[in-house]
TrEMBL record:
Pfam families reported in the protein's UniProt record: ADI
GO MF: amino acid binding; dimethylargininase activity
Family: Belongs to the DDAH family.
Record's protein name: N(G),N(G)-dimethylarginine dimethylaminohydrolase
C-alpha cells in the first residue's frame, strides 16, 4: 500500500568526528548542522512526508546518515552491515524503527558488508555499488533478499566516491544523473544525463515532480528546472564536509503492507 513516511536521525554530539575518506577533513559546525538538518526535515514534511525519528546512536558520529543502515524494497527492510566498523552500532535503532512501522525485517550477515548509500532503486531495478563499503558477498545477499520479490540487481563498480549514490541518483522518469568525473561506467544505465556539479548527481524524489537537492548544485538545479522538474534546494554544507549528500539523511518508506 502506498505510504509516505521517511526515517531520519538527528545529528549526534560527536558528528564532527564523522568519517572522511575521499576528501580533506574540514571542521564541522555542529550547531549549524542541527539547523540544516531541521530545515531538511522541514522540507520533507512540507512535501507531505511523515518523518519518523530513529532513536539516537550518540556513540556513532555518522548516525545522522541513516540511509546507509537499511535498504527498503516493497515492505521489506534489509538491515545493512556497514563496511565501516565504526558504523555497525547504528543498525539496532533502525531495526526497531522499521519493525515498528510493520516492515518485514531481514539482515545482511557476516562476511558480507553493504551500506544503503550503495543501493539505487529505479523501479524494480536495484543498482548496487561495489566499492569501499559494499563487498561481493553484500551484492550476493542483496540479490538473495530481493530478486525473489521481483527486483533485478545490477552491480556497478564504484572507485572514486564513497557510495554509488555519491555518484548517481535517478530522476522521476528513471534517467540517471551524475557528474562524469565520478561515474565510472555511465553505459551501465539505460538513460544517463551528465550534470555540471558533483552534488548535482544527488536528488531525493519528493513527489509531484519536486526534487530535493543540495544548494551546492545551482547549475544542475537550473538544468533540471529547464527540463520541467522542480528543484527544492537545501543547504547541507556541514554534512557535505563529511561526504554526506541529500540522499543519505533519510530513508523513504513508500510501500508499507496494510
Ligand atoms: N549515503 C551516504 O552518502 N552516506 C554518507 C556517509 C558519510 C559518512 N561520513 C561515512 O563516511 O560513512
Amino acid at each position: 500500500m502506498p505510504s509516505k513516511k521517511a526515517l531520519v536521525r538527528r545529528p549526534g554530539p560527536r558528528l564532527a568526528d564523522g568519517l572522511v575518506t575521499h576528501i580533506e577533513r574540514a571542521s564541522v559546525d555542529v550547531d549549524l548542522a542541527v539547523e540544516q538538518w531541521e530545515a531538511y526535515v522541514g522540507t520533507l514534511r512540507a512535501h507531505g512526508w511523515e518523518t519518523v525519528e530513529v532513536d539516537p546512536a550518540d556513540d556513532c558520529p555518522d548516525a545522522v546518515f541513516v540511509e546507509d543502515t537499511v535498504v527498503m524494497y516493497k515492505n521489506v527492510a534489509l538491515i545493512a552491515r556497514p563496511g565501516a566498523g565504526s558504523r555497525r552500532g547504528e543498525t539496532s535503532g533502525v531495526e526497531e524503527a522499521v519493525a515498528g512501522l510493520g516492515c518485514s525485517v531481514h539482515w545482511i550477515w557476516k562476511p558480507a558488508t553493504l551500506e544503503g548509500g550503495d543501493v539505487l532503486k529505479v523501479g524494480d531495478t536495484l543498482y548496487v555499488g561495489r566499492g569501499g563499503r559494499t563487498n561481493a558477498a553484500g551484492v550476493q545477499q542483496l540479490r538473495a533478499a530481493f530478486e525473489p520479490l521481483g527486483a533485478r540487481v545490477v552491480a556497478v563498480p564504484v572507485s572514486t566516491v564513497l557510495h554509488l549514490k555519491s555518484a548517481v541518483t535517478a530522476l522521476p522518469d528513471g534517467t540517471v544523473v551524475g557528474h562524469p568525473r565520478v561515474v565510472d561506467h555511465p553505459s551501465l544505465f539505460p538513460r544517463f544525463l551528465a550534470v555540471p556539479e558533483e552534488s548535482g548527481g544527488h536528488v531525493v524524489l519528493l513527489g509531484g515532480g519536486a526534487l530535493l537537492m543540495a544548494a551546492s548544485a545551482p547549475k544542475t538545479a537550473e538544468l533540471l528546472a529547464g527540463l520541467g522538474h522542480e528543484p527544492v534546494l537545501v543547504d547541507i554544507s556541514e554534512f557535505e564536509k563529511l561526504e554526506g549528500c541529500v540522499t543519505c539523511l533519510s530513508v523513504r518508506v513508500r510501500e508499507l503492507y496494510a
